[in-house]
Amino acid sequence: MKSDRLLSILLLLQTRGRVPAHELAGRLEVSVRTIYRDVEALSASGVPVYAERGRHGGIELLAGFRTDVTGLTADESRALFILAAQGAHAALGLDAALGSALRKVMAALPAPHRPAAEVTSRRVLVDATRWKGGPQPAVDLGVLQDAVFSDRRLRLRYRHSGDPEAHTYTVDPYGLVSKAGVWYLVADRRAKPRLFRADRVRAATVLADLVRRRPGVELADAWEVLRRQVEERPGGVDVTVRVRRSRLDLFLRLNAATLVELPEEDGTSDWVVARLSCGAVREARTLLAFGDAVEVLSPPEVRAELAATAAAVCAVYEGD
Question: Helices in 110-247 by DSSP H: which ranges?
Answer without folding.
Answer: 114-123, 142-150, 219-231
